[in-house]
Structure formats: C-alpha cells, structure tokens
Design a protein that fits this description.
- This is Nrap protein.
- The chain contains 44 helices and 32 strands.
- The strands form 9 sheets. It has a 6-stranded mixed β-sheet with strand order 3-4-7-6-5-13.
- The longest helix has 34 residues.
C-alpha cells in the first residue's frame, strides 16, 4: 500500500463537515449549532453577540456595512499571513510527525534495521550526515501508511461527498465560483462612501406631482429621467412627492452571507436603502402610488450619486428593472476603471441599489393575495369584491422584507458550516440550466443565453429552500412542527443533494410550503393576518416565506417551477448513478439552449396585449407590464391546448433582452420585449392522438368552455363505446403529419386566441427539418405503389410477414425452416428512408433512374439440424447455394411475379472459408429481401482452425476473417436488431432520431466510415443516459445525440449503452444505469486497449453494451481516428447552430446537412442521371436529370405522373444497386494505401478524397513501392541534407485513372490542391 502524504493546511468550509471522525462527534455537531459553525466563525464578519435585528433596522453594525479597518486589499500582507503557521497548527504537525515515527513507514523500518547492524564507531558522523538522515526520516513520515484517523476521514468523505473524486472536483470548482471577499477593499470603500453620502442628503419638501417633477427636471437639466412605471402618475393626483435622507442602508443578498456565486458577466453586490416611513400615507399601496414615490426617490438618489464629488465614488450609474418589473427599478453602479482607490473592477462586481421600506409600513392584511390594490373603473368599493392583485401586493411587501430575510439566512448560515458552499453548488447548477439572471454569449454560435421566464431571483429562492429544509415546516394546529429534512452538520454535497431530492419530489400545488418563522431573527409569522388559503387560491405554486406574507414563487410561472423540478429529477438520477461521475453535466456544461431541453420549441412574436376591459387592465397591472401579462396568457393557452398531451410547458426569454438590460439615466425606459421561446415536453403516449376528447354533452358548463376554446373545430361525436362527447379531430394522413399534431394545435390556438397567425408569429424548430427523410413529392406518385409516408414501416413489415409465411410453407426443401429472423435497419424502423414499394413495372419508363434504388432487407434463415452437413467449409458454402436455388424455385412457383436469384458477394473469390452468397428475393409488392442461411457448424470449424497450432498463418487469417463475418451476420446482427427494435418500442422517438442522425452522418460524407450499428448504439446511449434522458420527438433526440457526440471525449472514456437494462426494466422506470460489475469489466478492457494501442489504430469509438463489454462487435475497425475526430468537430459546429433554437431559418436548418468540400484534396463529381439514389439527396434538383424540366413553367400533377424520361439503367430491377457506392468500393480496393474516400451514400453526387500524407514525402526509389509514383526533386529538409531526385505519389496520374475507371459515372475530377481540373468527360 503506498504511503499518503499529509499536510497541516487550514480546512475549508466544504471540508469542515467531514472532520469529525466518530459518530459521537457527528452527534455533537448536530446537537450544537454553535460548535458546528465554529470552523467558519473566524472568517465571518458578523458578531454573534450583537443584536442583529436591532442593528439591521438601525442600519448599523455588521448587518449594514463593514468598518474602514476591514480592508484586505494588501496582497503582500495576505501572502505573509498565508505563510505564517499558527501555534496550534505547529503543535499539530509535531504530533503527527511523532505519531508517524512511532508507527513507522517503510523507510523508517529500513533505517532501524541498518542502525541495529552498525557498531558504536559509526555513531560519530558529521552534521551533514545527521541532516540528511533527518530529511529522510521526515520524508518517510510524510509518505507513510495512513493512520486510523485518516482512514476514517477517507471513509466519511466517500459517505458525505458521493466519492473522493467528486469531492475533489467540488473543492476545485468552489474557489473558481466564489468571489475573493478579502480582495474587495475598493468595493467596500465605495459602499462606505455611499453610506456617508446618503447620510448627508438634504430633504425635498412635499410637492404636487407636476411641481415635484418640474423642480427635479430643472435641477438635473434633463440628465435624469424619473423611471415611473406604467401608468405614470396623473397631474391631478391627490398625493405629493417628497424626499428625505434614507433611514438606513444595509448590505443584503448573498455578498454579506458569503454565498455569492460568480457568473460570466460578474456578480451583484446588493444594497438596500430604506425609505423613511414619513414619506408615505396609509393608502399609498393603492393604484401605483407607492411605486410612483419609489421611482421619484430612486431618481433623487441617482442625482446625488452622479453629482457626488466629495466623497468621490468613481462609478457610472444607470437604471435597471428588478426581475424585468417596471414597478421596481434599481440603480446599478459600475466602476469607471480609472485605477483609483475606488476602482473595484478586479472584483468583477456591480453594486445594485434597491429601495426598501419599513416592514410595518402597510398593514399585512391589506396586501393579502386575495385583496385588490388597483382600482380600474371602480370607486372605493370593498377590495374583496374586486379582482385580486396578488403579484402587485407581493411586490410591495417584498420591499419591506429584504433585511429580515438577510438576518434569517445569516442565522441559518451560522448554524450550518457548509451552508455557503451548498448555495454555490445550487446557484451554479441552476445557472447552467437557464435559471437566474445573467447573460452569456456563446463562443461558438454567438447566441445569447436563454433565461427561464420569471427565474430572475432563483438564486434567492434556492437559498430559502435550503434554509427551509434546515429549519423544517411551520407549526400546524394539531400536527406540530415537522422535523427538518437536513441537518446542520451535513456536507455541502449532502445539502445540495437534499435540496435537489426535495425539489424533484415535492408538489407545490397540492402541498403548499409554509416556511417556519424565526422570531429571534425578526421574522414572525403573519398567518393571523393573511390566511393560508389565500395563497393556494391565487397562486398555482406556493412557497410562503417565514413571515407568512409573500409567496416566494409569485414571479415564477407554474411552467418554470415544473421545469426546475424536471431538472432536479435529472440531477438526482445523475447523483444516484454510483458508477458515473456526471460532475461536468451537473455544474460545468451550458444546458440553457431550448433545442436540447424540450421536445418542441417555438419562437413567438408577442403581439401587444389587449387591455380593453377592466379585468384585463387589472391583470396587466398585477403583472407589471403588458409583456409579462401577454406571456402568462399565451402560456395558459398553450397549457390548455395541449392538456393531456404535454408534461410541462415553459417560456424562456433572451437574457440580453431590453427588459433586463441597464439603461442610461437620461434615457426613457426601454420598451417591452416582443419575443419569447416556448418549450414543450410531450407525453409520448398521448401527444400524437388524433381525437381530442372533450366533456359529455350533458355537462353544460364544461361543454361551453370546450366550444369557446376550440371554436368551429369542436363537434359532438358518438364513439364506439356509446359515449357522446365534444371532440376535435386532427386529420393526419401521413406519419409526419401525425407527429406534427402538437404544432398544429398550438398554431391554431395562438391564432384564435392571440391573433398570432402564420410562421411570422409562431415558428417551430421541428419545421426546419421537414422533408429530410423523404423523397420529393413529385417523384412519389411516379415511383412507388403506395406513399411510404402514409403507413410508415408497416408496408415493409407486412411484406416481411408475408414472405415469412411463404417460406415456412415451402415443401420442396430437404430440411425444414425452423427460424426466420430479421437483421436490417428497415425492419427495425431505423433506416434513413422508409422502405417504399417500388413500381417494378415502371422501371425504365415512368420510374426515373434517379429514384430506382431497391434496398434489400436482410433476413437470416435457420434450418433444422442434420448430420448430413459436410465438415468442409467450402462444401458448406456450396451446400448453402444449393439450398438457395431450391428456395428460389419454390418461391417463384408459389408467388406470382416473384423474382429470386442466388447472388454471390463482391469478394466471394477472396476467401473460400467464409459465407459468400445469398438469396435475393424481389416480391411483387415492390420490396426486396436478402436471405442468408445460418449454420452453427461453421463457427465450430472456424474456431477449430484457429485453435490448431499446426495450421498455416494464411489459413488462420482467412479463418479469422471468416469468423468475424459469420458473427456479424448470424450472431451479433440479429441480436443487435432485436435489442434496438425492443428499445424502439419502449421509446417511440428513438427510431426517427436514429434516422435523422444517420442522415446527418451520411450527409457529412462519412457514411462509409461509420457503421450504422454504431450510430444506433450512440443514439441509444443518449436516450438512456441520465444526463440527456429520452425525448419524445425526433428533432429533440437528434439534438441531444449531437450534443453527446460533441462533448464525448472518446479517446479517454468509453460510451455506455444500458440497452438490456432498459428493455427488462419495469413500466414507469425512467432511469437506466449500467450494471456495476459490467462497468468494471469495461474499464479494464478500455484501459488495456488504450495502453496497448496508444495510436488508436482500432476501436476509436469504444461503445459498449451489457453483452459487448469489449466494444469489438461494431467498432473494432471503424471509424478510424480521423473520422471520429471529424464527427466530434462537426457535432460541435452543429450544436452551436442548434443553440439558436427556433430562430433558425429553414435554409440554416437544412444547412446542417450540407457538407463542406474545402478540406478535401480532390473531388470526384458524378453524373446525377445515373445515380439510383439521387432522389434522396439533400441538394436534389430535378433539372439535373430531367432535360424537359422548367422551373418557370410548372406542369400539372397528372402530366408529371405520366411523364417519361429516357432511361440509362433499363427496366431490370437490381437489388441494392448503387453506382456511386460501387465506384467508391472499387477505388478503395485499388487505392486504399494512396487515398481515403468520403461519400454521402444517400444520393451524394460528389466523392471527396484525401491523399495519404506519408506518400507525399519524397523518398528513394525501390522496387514494389506499392503506389503510383513519379520522379521529382527533393524538397525541404531532404534537399538540405543533400539528397537529389526521388519519387513520391503521382496525384495527377491517379486522378486520370479514376476518371478512366469511372467512365459513364464521373463527369469531372478536380484536384483541389492547386485548383487543377484534370478532365471533364461525358
């Protein structure tokens, strides 16, 4: 066992919770909050002996601002203090060293043995020898075996932090997100000067609205515009505006709690300036009067800060809206970066000045959620009879609770040492998922960060959630207080996990949360003034603060809360994965883009909200702006429209939106945002249903509501079970149209209820990918017997079932068929294009050559066992051919129009040991199948050859190749087919997601280098991963697979696909973890593979399943390293484009599937007229193959169907005939050592090539070089060494050979290097 080096460093707050090494210490820590907080008291600016509440109210003491002496800006002093070791630490070091000397390390024992053998004369050594021995002794002590205490500490670390590695990563990350509080001297100086400035401000006498505004404008001369909310105060208002110096100033928020977290744009230091109560009247909470006085007070403060010369502040002042609410503007102070003593630029912080009022300024009962505070078109009637304004009331009450919340959280932090670090983890986790304020521009796409609607203050909410779980629920009559769910002695990881667990499981609708009050911190419950029922009646999600007066989730729409809980469930699944780390996915990766989060994403152009009636005007006043009012209304419409079809619906807004931006003091407040993004998570079991069932006709009220919502689409229908219901029918004649039903529903509902019609108002991301997986509509009627989009894969499956029945009914075989299994993407619904019934009679006439491709569906036949099979492998292959002939004869006699042929493989003559032929079956239904016979005896014979030590090496190589092909075709292929098919039935979006990913890989001209099976495994891994989860739409699955490819470090990590675990899992289980014992095997295989093959010549993608822990079945040879790296780079680029979400144009969406040719050394251009798959090309153009096509004069549909274009390929159906792929294979066989080819097999009309770079170097001539060469002069270093002529690859000659071999297919070969066109024929 290696020694463990020990140091006596100071313990951080995140580590302090794991210091107790026994259960007694843990219990003491839990029972004594003061002892638990002892480790962080030395760094805390608060004094436990002072009255926090009194000092907070008075604006003095540690709850307000730090003293002048607390300036940690001297770097040299800090470094000296770090080097100095306290006396207690020195004693601890001495004790540790003495203990280790007693226990003894390896070197100590060796030293003792040597000392026993020496005699007395050797004790007289010089001082230098003594010093060296001392050093060796200390080194041995440092690296000796761990003590019992240390072993216990390591064990507790594993228990408290999931794993040692996870704890190390947390310890590494926290200093990066934690501000340097001890380096904030300039910031604190500015804060103290602000307090001095505010204490010296002169009052302004009360004046009427016009007089006060005019006087202020004359004073500032237009340099400051008062940020009044909408509506602005009326000139004839019966109240006055005045100003008096603040009654107090407090530091609030996370800065004094030391729980502030850095963001890319910096962090906020919040200051609360308390307005004197004498400025307000009893009814100032009515009709925006409080907010008008608040805005005027803020403008006066802005003027004082701007014109302050003594004391000098050195800041630039601007306005900003708190949470985007026009009723609550704040001041933002930014340093001037003038390198003065007030320049706090290095802290990357902004000072935000909030206005607050005294807690008891207004009676709590008057601002209950059930009360109305905005009278529109009504007199002074009782507020209980009017529409409530719960959000308006909450905005006023929140201004009076800022200091009380600070004291409450400080008391909590004092009792829990890891509180601050847990807050950092929560805030970082939430920010990476789009929750909370803060902009961030993507480095790759330039797209701004998306922020979940209403989540501006989520950092405060999460902090309060953590405090709530540490204190427990409020006492309820008859039940008492609940026990806290978290203990003060927990580590930061345990606290983070506890919050995530609670968020994932709690229902804020049916179980509203009422936080426990804390009278010692000044937070006394006001439940006697505001009934609990008020909150549940007027808010969908409820979490009431300790004062019992405001709902902390008031600004968060229900969809945003549900999205937070959804992310918490995913995070909990990652934390529960004992085999995985997932640290990067939890805290480091940006997961804010809607395209990677939701199943459907729509960009909405928000129209101006209609506030024609009193109810709408009150609702708009309640939300504070027309934008948030419209956003809420649209969100409610979306939820109602997709009721039963969606799991959650949430809105996101650009974090760079004008409503969140700062604006200059002299400018008017920016206008409302007019754009938002709607994200929907669908229920895959209900989302695609065609019939929308409504209430029965006898339920008059519900039926009326149903008809009002759906309009003319609603109709009364009788169903087979006898029910008569209001219903809506969404016709879906094709499979794509059925998957578009949720989008059609939303488009209709938005147009009906919000006048948002057309793509200009509602744009869906999924619409940008329409048509990628089908051939042009103009060709379908000419080419196919039936439209494959109507029934999907059912047509080919029906033909397979029919063929299976006919094969089992053959009576002319000497051995019976006992099993027929499929092994083809088309039969497991994962092929790029749905297999379509080709019109065989129209080949050569009505069916154009560009759409004449007839794919083969592979099936495996197993005959009954017999002892008459030969033991010779070539004889077995001959026997198989005989069986194929007999089967072909039987099928053609039984099925009219069936064509069947025995087809030999392209490389049949190269290896006599392996399976070399198959049976091609073309049914009259327009489908083709390729059948192969599985004979188990082959595997035994091949393994016998490999085990025979007397066999020749050449025969063993052939046997090894034959065995690999046998396993792929007859063992691994059918198993893989069954697994993917079963998983596809369980996850409906998997199949179409795989198809899109295959389409993308193929379009990047990598289809020949990436096996289809590997793509399917990667997609399965993304769907089964707790990081990604299984989406309900193909576009969402496509985006998540691309993100997996972009972030997967394939050189360092294997990729796990727990397919068998998912298939065998019970219904309702959504988390599928790779088995632990299998994962250990995978890690051993992976480390062995990478260590023995550092150049990664094979198994670049190490993708494993429970059955294949070595990753050999499909990824042993392909992709090569360059292709794997290319896929990663391309995926990163694609993800950067998808980050823009639904704002993508259709051209940009299709552009993801258009490859770049700039990086190829040469390009082979093909003639589209002879390409059987050209109709599948992304860049398909009819004019390239149809000479009579004229885009300016379109033809009628019946004329197109009967149009005949001269055929080059003729009327004979050819199974799997693809000239382009055949050319690629031919050139690869001939020139595999000279270049590498890349081609899009789905209709690509170009082939890219890269020369072997090692052959471009000049070398000496010798016989049998193995490549086409030419004589040339030495270059570069070779020339400098004095070498003369040599040879290198002859690119021009090879290009000429390619042109000759491709005659009739190749139109041009361009040598990109040097831009030389070698030729153009045909």
């Amino acid at each position: 066992m290696p020694g463990v080096k020990r140091k006596a460093n100071a313990v951080s707050s995140s580590q302090s919770s794991v210091q107790p090494s026994s259960s007694k210490k843990k219990q003491a820590l839990k029972n004594s909050p003061s002892k638990a907080a002892q480790v962080s008291e030395d760094d805390d600016e608060f004094d436990d002996d002072e009255d926090l509440l009194a000092s907070a109210v008075a604006g003095t003491g540690s709850a307000a601002l730090a003293d002048d002496d607390d300036n940690g800006d001297d770097d040299e002093e800090d470094e000296d203090e770090d080097e100095e070791i306290p006396t207690e630490s020195k004693k601890r070091i001495v004790e540790i060293l003495s203990d280790e000397d007693m226990d003894g390390g390896f070197e100590d024992l060796e030293a003792d043995d040597l000392m026993d053998d020496q005699d007395d004369s050797e004790h007289g050594q010089d001082d230098r020898s003594t010093a060296e021995a001392s050093k060796k002794s200390k080194a041995a002590a440092l690296y000796s075996l761990p003590t019992t205490e240390e072993v216990q500490g390591l064990k507790e670390t594993g228990e408290l932090f999931k794993s040692n590695v996870f704890k190390l990563k947390i310890d590494e990350m926290l200093p990066e997100v934690r501000p340097a509080f001890d380096k904030a001297g300039a910031l604190e100086l500015v804060l103290r000067r602000l307090q001095t400035l505010f204490d010296t401000l002169k009052p302004l006498a009360p004046r009427s609205i016009p007089d006060a505004i005019n006087a202020f404008d004359q004073k500032v001369k237009g340099s400051i515009k008062i940020p009044f909310p909408d509506p602005a105060p009326k000139d004839d208002a019966q109240y006055k505006l005045a100003f008096q110096k603040p009654s107090a100033m407090h530091l609030i928020g996370s800065w004094p709690l030391k729980s502030a977290a850095k963001r890319p744009e910096g962090l906020d230091v919040d200051v609360a300036v308390v307005m004197p109560s004498s400025l307000f009247q009893e009814k100032d909470h009515m009709n925006f009067r409080y907010f008008h006085k608040r805005a005027f007070y803020l403008a006066v403060l802005a003027d004082a800060i701007t014109n302050s010369k003594q004391p000098k502040l050195g800041v630039q002042t601007s306005f900003q809206l708190m949470e985007g609410d026009p009723r609550r503007p704040i001041l933002v102070l930014k340093p001037l970066h003038d390198k003065s003593d007030t320049d706090f630029t290095k802290t990357k912080a902004l000072i935000r000045i909030h206005l607050a009022h005294e807690p008891n300024l207004f009676p709590y009962g008057r601002l209950a959620p059930s009360r109305n505070s905005v009278r529109v078109g009504a007199g002074e009637s009782d507020a209980r009879d009017l529409t409530p304004t719960p959000r308006y009331n909450s905005a006023i009450l929140a201004d009076g609770l800022q200091v009380a919340h600070l004291v409450y959280l400080h008391a909590t932090a004092q009792a829990c040492p890891a509180f601050a670090d847990a807050c950092l983890l929560l805030k970082t986790w939430a920010f990476q998922r789009g929750f909370g304020s803060g902009s961030r521009i993507s480095k790759t796409s330039g797209a701004p960060r998306r922020q979940v609607a209403g989540s501006h203050s989520i950092r405060f909410v999460l902090t309060m959630v953590l405090a709530h779980l540490l204190h427990g629920e409020e006492k309820v009559a008859g039940k008492g207080a609940t026990r806290p769910k978290l203990a003060n002695g927990f580590s930061s990881y345990q606290l983070f996990r506890g919050v995530v667990d609670w968020l994932a499981s709690h229902d804020f609708t049916t179980k509203p949360v009422f936080m426990k009050d804390l009278p010692s911190a000044g937070l006394v419950s006001r439940s006697d003034k505001i009934p609990r029922e008020d909150f549940s009646s007027h808010f969908e999600k409820v979490m009431v603060d300790p004062s019992g007066s405001i709902n902390l989730l008031a600004s968060l729409p229900a969809g945003s809360v549900e999205l937070l809980q959804h992310e918490a469930k995913k995070a909990l699944a990652m934390l529960n994965d004992s085999n995985g780390d997932h640290f990067e996915a939890l805290f480091l990766q940006d997961r804010t883009a809607s395209a990677f989060t939701f199943d459907e994403t729509a960009l909405l152009k928000i129209p101006p909200a209609k506030v024609g009636d009193n109810l709408a005007a009150i609702r708009k006043a309640d939300f504070g702006s027309t934008f948030f009012y419209a956003l809420d209304a649209i969100s409610r419409t979306a939820i109602r429209a997709l009721r039963g079809r969606s799991k959650l619906t949430s809105m996101t807004i650009s974090a760079s939106s004008p409503i969140f931006a700062c604006w200059s003091l002299e400018s008017a407040r920016p206008g409302n945002e007019d754009e938002a993004e709607l994200g929907i998570m669908l229920d895959p079991e209900q989302a695609w249903k065609i019939v929308e069932h409504g209430p029965p006709s006898d339920d008059k009220e519900s039926a009326e509501e149903f008809r009002n919502f759906w309009g003319n689409l609603a109709e009364l229908r009788r169903f087979k079970d006898g029910r008569i219901l209001e219903s809506v029918i969404w016709n879906a004649p094709t499979i794509p149209s059925r998957f578009s039903i949720p989008r059609r529903i939303l488009s209709y509902a938005f147009e009906r209820h919000h006048s948002m019609g057309g793509a200009a108002s509602v744009s869906f991301l999924a619409d940008k990918f329409e048509g990628l997986l089908s051939v042009p509509e103009a060709l379908k009627e000419k080419t196919y017997l039936a439209d494959p989009e109507e029934k999907g894969f059912q047509l080919v499956q029906q033909s397979y079932d029919y063929l299976t029945k006919e094969l089992r009914g053959l009576d002319n075989l000497p051995l019976s068929l006992i099993n027929i299994v499929p092994s083809s993407p088309g039969l497991r619904a994962t092929s790029e294009f749905i297999p379509a019934p080709l019109s065989l009679e129209g080949l050569g006439t009505r069916v154009p050559d560009v759409a004449s491709y007839l794919p083969a569906q592979d099936i495996v036949l197993t005959l009954e066992s017999s002892g008459k099979w030969p033991d010779d492998l070539p004889a077995i292959q001959a026997m198989k051919a005989a069986f194929y002939e007999r089967i072909a004869t039987g099928l053609m006699s039984k099925i009219d129009g069936c064509k069947s042929n025995v087809a030999y493989d392209r490389d049949a003559d190269e290896n006599e040991l392996r399976d070399k032929c198959s049976l091609e079956i073309i049914l009259p239904t327009g489908f083709a199948f390729r059948a192969r016979i599985h004979h188990e005896r082959e595997q035994v014979l091949l393994e016998r050859i490999l085990a025979d030590k007397y066999e020749s090496g050449s025969k063993k190589r052939k046997a090894r190749s034959a065995l690999a092909k046998y396993e792929r075709q007859f063992v691994f292929g059918p198993r893989h087919h069954a697994s993917i098919a079963a998983l596809g039935h369980k996850m409906p979006a998997l199949g179409d997601s795989i198809r899109l990913v295959k389409r993308w890989v193929s379009s990047q001209m990598l289809s020949t280098h990436v096996p289809e099976e590997l793509i399917e495994l990667i997609c399965a891994s993304a769907f089964l991963s707790p990081e990604e989860g299984a989406p309900a739409s193909s576009v969402a699955g496509f985006a998540r697979v691309l993100r997996l490819l972009a972030i997967w470090r394939w050189k360092e990590d294997p990729l796990y696909a727990a397919i068998e675990t998912a298939i065998s899992a019970a219904e309702g289980v959504h988390t599928f973890l790779f088995p632990s014992e299998k994962k250990i095997e995978v890690e051993n295989h992976f480390s062995k593979t990478r260590s023995t093959d550092p150049g990664i010549s094979n198994r670049a993608w190490f993708i494993v399943t429970e059955e294949d822990t070595e990753g050999k079945r499909w990824g042993k040879e392909r992709p090569f390293t360059g292709a794997a790296d290319g896929v990663k780079r391309l995926a990163k680029g694609a993800c950067s484009i998808l980050e823009r979400g639904a704002s993508l144009s259709e051209v940009e969406g299709k552009g993801l599937f258009v490859p770049s040719l700039d990086h190829y050394d040469f390009v082979i251009e093909l003639d589209p007229k002879v390409l059987t798959r050209y109709a599948q090309s992304v860049s398909y153009q009819e004019g390239e193959w149809n000479p009579s096509f004229n885009a300016k004069q379109p033809k009628f549909k019946n004329m197109l169907a009967n149009e005949v274009v001269p055929s080059v390929l003729g009327p004979l159906p050819r199974v799997d005939f693809d000239p382009a792929q055949g050319l690629v294979q031919l050139l690869t066989d001939l020139y595999s050592d000279s270049f590498r080819l890349f081609h899009d097999r789905s209709g690509g009309k170009v082939i890219g090539g890269l020369w072997n770079p090692s052959l471009e170097r000049v070398r000496d001539f010798r016989v049998a070089l193995g490549f086409n060469s030419k004589v040339c002069e030495a270059e570069g270093e070779e020339k400098a060494k004095g070498k003369g002529k040599g040879v290198k690859i002859n690119c021009e000659s090879i290009v000429g050979e390619i042109e000759r071999l491709g005659q009739g297919i190749v139109t041009k070969v361009k040598l990109v290097r040097g831009v030389v066109e070698v030729g153009s024929s045909n």
